[in-house]
Sequence to fold (89 residues):
Amino acid sequence: GFEARLAYNYRSEYLDEVGGDFNEDLYLDSRGQLDFKASYALNDNFDVYLTLVNLTDEPLRYVSGRNTGRLAENEIYSWNGMLGLRMQY
Fold:
């Protein structure tokens, strides 16, 4: 009845917006984060679960221009979690 998963997710840099020239293009910077998920079946119909996302506190960064890498935006979300009871019928 017990399940657990630890996952590391990585996404490389990619073009998000095209600007007037290549120095104004907006890229989402590469990032990796660690996530955890666990659940326990109480019986055939109910289980309790815990999900924790971004345990490594990775920020979301946008940079202007691929070659210059000027920081355009830095969003810090920290980690978040969810605890719940799931019913199946």
In short: The chain is about 0% helix and 60% strand. The chain has a mean pLDDT of 92. The CA atoms of residues 44 and 89 lie 9 Å apart.
